[in-house]
Specification:
Length: about 190
């Protein structure tokens, strides 16, 4: 199995790139943010639980998030593996992911970290708010809080994956096509 992680702050372009890469390399794209939003849209119990956190720019608790992802992370012969975006966001989630993939004698192939300066992120999120309909994009304070949560809870994962030799930093500023082609080249260099 090939399992890729898209890593980076809110607004870095993880979802955009993950979608393109999933199609290019026949990977199943899983975005915890998208799954939560779909559950919220359907008004499920999980969606209602997630909403209280998401609207404040907080992380949904690990038990809920990991429990949800477990249901999706099953090998599927139609795909060569997974590309995850928005997960893991805490060390506890990363450890849980290692265990879940371990159940399939699999692991993480590569982690691509999209590097984008804070000012550019804020600009993108403000722009996205105009069309996304996402309440967590619409409020400047919620955006600030998400960036703060990212720095505190999620950024330590970079060291976690760097230690394992899995981390690749990618320039996340430029056109979507340029960034996509950069990541594609890196994946091809892995011999995949
Ligand atoms: P962004 O990358 O712009 O923050 P996402 O769609 O990835 O957008 O996430 C939106 C929100 O969903 C997050 O702010 C958080 O509240 C929740 N969420 C998504 N993934 C996770 C996760 N792995 N752990 C906890 N909460 C999550």
């Amino acid at each position: 199995m090939i399992n890729l992680l898209m890593f980076g702050p809110p607004g870095a372009g993880k979802g955009t790139q993950a979608q393109l890469l999933a199609a290019q390399f026949r990977l199943r794209h899983l975005s915890t943010g998208d799954i939560f939003r779909s559950e919220m849209g359907q008004g499920t119990e999980l969606g209602r639980a997630a909403r209280t956190y998401i609207e404040k720019g907080m992380l949904v608790p690990d038990e809920i998030t990991v429990g949800m992802l477990r249901g999706y992370l099953k090998p599927d012969p139609a795909f060569r593996g997974f590309i995850l975006d928005g997960f893991p966001r805490t060390i506890a989630q990363a450890e849980a992911l290692d265990r879940l993939l371990g159940e399939w004698d699999s692991g993480i192939t590569r982690v691509f970290s999209l590097e984008v300066p804070d000012e550019e992120l804020k600009k993108r999120l403000r722009q996205r708010a105009l069309t996304s309909g996402r309440s967590d994009d619409a409020d400047e304070n919620v955006i600030e809080h998400r960036l703060e949560v990212y720095r505190k809870e999620t950024l330590p994962l970079k060291a976690y994956y760097a230690r394992q030799g899995l981390l690749e930093e990618v320039k996340g500023v430029g056109s979507i096509e340029e960034i996509f082609s950069d990541i594609c080249n890196r994946i091809r260099q892995l011999g995949i």
